[in-house]
TrEMBL record:
Organism: Paenibacillus zeisoli
Protein family (similarity comment): Belongs to the FPG family.
Pfam family for this entry, one: H2TH
Name of the protein this chain belongs to: Formamidopyrimidine-DNA glycosylase
HAMAP family according to UniProt: Fapy_DNA_glycosyl (MF_00103)
Length: 284
């Protein structure tokens, strides 16, 4: 599932590929991808004639910004965008096609069919589902340590599910939560309200660094993620803990363990990420 770095990579790529293009028509072959408006014909008619100005992002959602409309799109498990010439054959599992006036097309392909699209008037998208309740953007300037502490520190839940909750901080999924907790030397099952100030600072810094580095590297490609130009991300070799079950910890050599926390497969080092605070712990 794409997390913030992957979606950000798609955003940057798409922005370069479709900004300035005008929609001539839209073909929808799987109506349930379109969550708003209810009527597919209305979706099609509303988009006709609109020009794409930019592509934004909120959490794991893309915002395709047009003159007078915003399309909010979530890729979920396997959704992918690609820009093609209209003469190119349409691949299987292509569910939505935006036909541009210049003869190219933006195609949305989704094998698992879990992706969603919502169409809004500009600004309206932040006042309704699915963007309404989203939490802090970890790569924004507004994501200060104090803001992070305010949403996390008092909670009585385990830290891993808290970090996965998009109402607190957006963009982190299973991979980058494991990476950030490892980097901060914090056990995934530690309770939020048992983290001391030093641990909260380490975790805050680890989240920002982990996501920034992954964005810089073009997003991870653990599963079937491909960016808007069909290029695979290149960060997977840099993952330090995720997917390394039984391999030696890169810091201390202890075999990496995998367990289930909050229903999700979780990788951690039993030595670097002790459940008890260990003042002599090494920093990563
Ligand atoms: Zn270790």
């Amino acid at each position: 599932m794409p997390e913030l770095p992957e979606v950000e990579t798609v955003r940057r790529t798409l922005s370069q590929l479709i900004t300035g293009k005008t929609i001539r028509d839209v073909t929808v072959s799987l109506p349930r991808i379109i969550q708003r408006p209810d009527d597919i014909e209305q979706f099609r008619l509303e988009l006709q004639g609109h020009t794409i100005i930019d592509v934004g992002r909120r959490g794991k959602f893309l915002r395709i910004i047009m003159d007078g409309l915003v399309l909010v799109s979530h890729l979920r498990m396997e959704g992918r965008y690609g820009v093609y010439d209209s003469s190119e054959p349409v691949e299987k599992h292509t569910h939505v096609i935006f036909h541009f006036t210049d003869g190219t097309e933006l195609r949305y392909k989704d094998v698992r069919q879990f992706g969603t699209m919502h169409l809004f008037n500009p600004g309206e998208e932040f006042k309704m589902k699915p963007l309404l309740k989203l939490g802090l953007e970890p790569l924004d300037e507004a994501f200060t340590f104090e803001a992070f502490k305010r949403v996390i520190a008092a909670r009585k839940t385990k830290i891993k599910p808290a970090l996965l909750n998009q109402e607190y901080v957006v963009g982190l999924g299973n991979i980058y939560v494991d990476e950030a907790l490892f980097r901060a030397g914090i056990h995934p099952e530690k309770l939020c309200n048992e983290l001391d100030q030093e641990e909260l600072v380490r975790l805050y810094e680890a989240i920002v660094l982990t996501l920034s580095e992954a964005v810089e590297a073009g997003g991870s490609s653990i599963k079937s993620y491909v960016n808007g130009q069909g290029e695979m991300g290149m960060f997977q070799h840099s993952l330090q803990i995720y997917g390394r079950k039984a391999a030696p910890c890169v810091v201390c050599g202890t075999p990496v363990e995998k367990s289930v926390v909050g229903g999700r497969g979780t990788h951690y080092c039993p030595s670097c990420q002790l459940i008890q605070t260990n003042k002599t712990k090494k920093k990563h």
